[in-house]
């Protein structure tokens, strides 16, 4: 029986465990939080910090694993590449290549070096050095930790006088105490954050969506909904698919799922913002399987174990799809979820993770989500009507 080590124990690992078990694979989940939900469903739990590469490697060697994966878990992606390289296990690419993808500063530098469309950007470890460079950027700017995901530590800054505060906030979420400043790209339509898949270095499945935000949330830069198809022009989708393929070739990548963020700017250019060799959070791969039938999660497991992939090919969406990330805009005590009767026929799946009486936080980052609602519409017109303001149709009600 093959052994797969999954780095991270959040609920986003549950479909990975299910897929692995369907293939007859023994599953080991690993992190330093024994109460995480995924550990209840794996065959074995390993208590180790997945950001500690040597400790994770030792744990993997002791268990003689056949594959390692960090799915929808950003902190474990580089560690998974490290373990795979040291043990000679299947991996999307070299530790060096994965490290470039996972560090926003290195990634921007790589894109610039190889002639990709890229906003003015620079990585820093010193606040004072950054403050000296205010004239380098075209304001407003975005300040981010280089090694964080889920919109943690991200802020838009319109006035250089507020830059220090934004940097300090970003650094509070950075393990490596490194941050990046980049020009804010004013987007045309919606940005895209969705999953794709390459097999032996060839981009076999690529998707684009419309990533939506909740302006009323405590952090308006935390994704609050997604919809397929994308608002992006077909020309820019084709251009980005070609550029993603070029990126895969330049980095020598092989077989993997990717979470890719792209954007269409009002300057007429299309940008690759991020490309991480992992499944995205917020159940994106599962939604894409509903919409296309392509089994991205199962094939991510197959790739991690060196098994042949099955059915990874470009397929059209079988309808118009949306996913609403259920959340409260402010802290309180959860009472119930209200869904308007007018969209009852569009509800494909309702997945609520908490019960009435549970304390909830404001939507400051992706980890404040309390569930998901998957919707399928017959027409794109109806999708747009509902997704223009999902809060009219779906509300998280707090106790008074």
Give a brief description:
With 400 residues, the chain is α+β, with helices and mostly antiparallel strands.
Verbal overview:
By secondary structure, the chain is an alpha+beta fold. It folds into 3 domains: 87 residues, Rossmann fold; 64 residues, Dna Ligase, domain 1; 207 residues, D-amino Acid Aminotransferase, Chain A, domain 1, CATH 3.30.470. The strands form 5 sheets. It has a 5-stranded antiparallel β-sheet. A hairpin with a 2-residue loop joins strand 9 and strand 10. Helix 2 crosses helix 3 and helix 3 runs antiparallel to helix 4. The longest helix is centred in the middle third of the chain and has 18 residues. It is globular, with a radius of gyration of 20 Å.
For the record, the CATH class of the largest domain is Alpha Beta
Termini, distance in Å? 53 Å
Subunit arrangement of the protein: single chain
CATH homologous superfamily label of the largest domain: ATP-grasp fold, B domain
Helical amount: 25-40%
Task: Label the CATH architecture of the largest domain.
Answer: 2-Layer Sandwich
Q: What count of structural domains?
A: 3
Find the structural class using helix and strand composition. alpha+beta
Distinct helical segment count: 11
Unreliable runs: none
Number of strands: 20
Overall form: globular
How large, in whole angstroms, is the Cα Rg? 20 Å
Q: Which range does the strand content fall in?
A: 25-35%
Strand order of the largest sheet: 11-12-15-19-17
What is the CATH topology descriptor of the largest domain? Answer: D-amino Acid Aminotransferase, Chain A, domain 1
């Amino acid at each position: 029986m093959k052994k797969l080590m999954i780095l991270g124990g959040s609920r986003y690992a549950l479909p990975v465990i299910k897929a692995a078990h369907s293939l007859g694979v023994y599953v080991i989940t690993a992190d330093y939080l024994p109460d995480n939900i995924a550990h209840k469903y794996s065959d074995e739990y390993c208590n180790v910090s997945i950001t500690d590469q040597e400790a994770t490697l030792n744990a993997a060697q002791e268990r003689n694993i056949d594959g390692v994966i960090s799915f929808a878990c950003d902190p474990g992606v580089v560690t998974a590449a490290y373990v795979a390289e040291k043990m000679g296990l299947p991996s999307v690419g070299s530790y060096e290549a994965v490290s470039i993808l996972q560090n926003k500063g290195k990634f921007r530098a790589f894109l610039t070096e190889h002639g990709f469309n890229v906003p003015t950007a620079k990585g820093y470890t010193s606040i004072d050095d950054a403050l000296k460079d205010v004239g380098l950027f075209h304001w407003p700017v975005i300040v981010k930790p280089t090694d964080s995901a889920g919109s943690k530590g991200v802020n838009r800054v319109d006035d250089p006088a507020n830059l220090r505060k934004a940097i300090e906030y970003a650094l509070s979420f950075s393990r490596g105490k490194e941050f990046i400043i980049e020009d804010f790209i004013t987007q045309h339509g919606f940005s895209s954050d969705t999953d794709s898949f390459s097999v032996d270095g060839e981009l076999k499945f690529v998707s684009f969506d419309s990533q939506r935000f909740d302006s009323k949330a405590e952090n308006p830069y935390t994704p609050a909904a997604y919809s397929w198809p994308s608002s992006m022009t077909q020309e820019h989708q084709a251009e980005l698919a070609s550029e993603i393929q070029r990126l895969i070739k330049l980095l020598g990548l092989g077989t993997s799922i990717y979470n890719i963020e792209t954007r269409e700017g009002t300057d007429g250019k299309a940008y690759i913002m991020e490309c991480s060799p992992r499944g995205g959070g917020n159940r994106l791969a599962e939604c894409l399987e509903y919409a296309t039938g392509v089994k991205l999660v199962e094939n991510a497991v197959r790739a991690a174990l060196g098994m042949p992939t099955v059915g990874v090919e470009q397929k059209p969406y079988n309808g118009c799809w949306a996913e609403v990330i259920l959340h409260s805009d402010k802290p309180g005590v959860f009472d119930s979820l209200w869904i308007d009767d007018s969209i009852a026929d569009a509800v494909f799946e309702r997945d609520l993770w908490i019960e009435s009486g549970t304390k909830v936080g404001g939507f400051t980052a992706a980890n404040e989500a309390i569930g998901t609602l998957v919707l399928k519409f017959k027409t794109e017109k109806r999708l747009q009507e509902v997704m223009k303001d999902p809060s009219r149709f779906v509300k998280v009600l707090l106790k008074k």
